[in-house]
Amino acid sequence: MRVFVWLAVLLAASPALAQTPGGPPAVGVVTVEPATVTESSEFTGRVQAVGRVSLTARVTAFLEQRLFTEGTEVTAGDILYRLERGPFEADVARQEATVADTSARLANATLQLNRAQTLLQTQAGNRVNVDDAMMAQRSAAALLSGAQAVLRQGHINLDYTEIKAPISGQISRTAITPGNVVSPSSGPLAMIVSQDPMYVAFPVSARVLTDLRTRYAGRGGLNAVQVRLKLPDGTPYDQIGKIDYVDPSVSPGTDTILVRTAIANPVRGTPEPGRPVDRLLTDGAFVTVSVEGIKPVTSLGIPRAAVLADQGGNFVYVVGADNKVDRRPIQLGQSTPSLAVVSSGLKQGESVVLEGLQRVRPGIQVNPGPAGPRPPPAAGGR
C-alpha cells in the first residue's frame, strides 16, 4: 500500500511525467529562449614579477651595515647596505687636491700665454715664445680635464658605498652579512621582486587564440576581454586584468603562443613597519586564468542536461507541433555548467526534451509537458 502512495506522490510532483497507461510516453520539455551569458575560456598561468633586481656591490670594501628587514618591502631609493667609506673619502680628497693643483697650473700657463702675446706686439716679442706658451696652456687644460674626470669617478665610487634600492618591492634575505669584504665579483647580496602590479603569463594554443580574436573582432579584439584569476586553492581573485602582451611567434614544441596580462596585487590588511606585507599573488605561483568578454552576449540557450552527444556530435530531441520527436544536430557556443548556448541548429520558441530522454526516439509521438525546475549545478563543474 505504501508503494502505491509513494508512486502517486511522485507522479503528482512531476506532472510532465504522469501519463495514461498505454498512451504516448510523457516527457518534460523546455522552450528555446534567448539567454545572457558571459563568454569565457580557462587556461593555466604563472604569476611573474614585473621587475626583478639582483643587488651587487660596485666597489670592493668592507660591508659595514645592513639597513633592511629581510622579507619586507622596500621603496626605490632606500639605502639597503653601507660599505666602508673612509678609503673612498680619502681618495676623493686626494683627487680634489690634484684638481686644485692642475687648475693653478692652467691659470699660470694662461697668464704666460697672455704675456707672450702682448710682447709679440713689441720689439721684445718672439713668435716661438708665444707658440711654447700656447702649447703649455693647452697641456695644462688637458691635465685639468683629466683630473676632473678622475675626481668625478672618485665621487661615483664614494656613492657606491651606499647600495640603494633601484625599484620598489619585496626584498629577499641577505646573502652576505656585515663584516665581510664585498666586491663586484662577490655575487648578489640580495634580490628585490616588485609586487604591484604583477604579470600573469599563460600559453594559449594558436587555434584557440585565433578563435578568440575572431570571436571578438567586431567588439575591439583582445581589448574587449578581461582576465580573472583563481588562486592555487581555487579561491576567486578579486582583481581584474587586461591582456597587455602577445608573443609574436608560436612555440614550435607546443604550438602555443604566450599571452600576458597585468593585474593589480594590492596590500591586504594594514601594513606594519618592519613586518612582511600580505599580498595574494606571489611571483612564480600557478593560477587559473579565465579570459572573459567585458560585455555579456545574448544567445539561444537550453539546459545543459538536454544536450546529448555521440560520434556525430551534439544533438537534442525536438518536439514538433504534432507532438512528434525529431532528432536535431546542434552546434554549441560558449556554455556554462548548467546552460548550453546554441549557435546553430535550433530556433527560438522550439520545444526541446529535457525529462524522459530515455523513452524517446526520432519519429515517435509523445505527451509533452513543462519540465520541472533543475537543481543547481555542482560546484567546480564546467
How does this structure look, described?
This protein has 4 helices and 24 strands. The chain has helices at residues 2-13, 86-119, 127-159, 206-215, and strands at residues 26-31, 33-37, 40-49, 52-55, 61-66, 73-74, 79-83, 162-164, 169-171, 181-182, 190-193, 198-205, 225-230, 242-246, 256-263, 286-293, 297-303, 308-310, 313-319, 325-329, 331-332, 339-344, 351-355, 367-370. Strands 1, 18, 19, 20, 23 and 24 form a 6-stranded mixed sheet that branches. Strands 13-16-3-12-15-14 form a 6-stranded antiparallel sheet. It is elongated, with a radius of gyration of 39 Å.
The CATH superfamily of the largest domain is identified as Efflux pump adaptor protein, beta barrel domain
What percentage of residues falls in helices of 4 or more residues?
A: 10-25%
Under CATH, the topology of the largest domain can be stated as Elongation Factor Tu (Ef-tu), domain 3
**At the first level of CATH, what is the class of the largest domain?**
Mainly Beta
Please mark out the parts with pLDDT under 50 across 5 or more consecutive residues, or reply none: 1-20, 376-382
Integer count of domains? 3
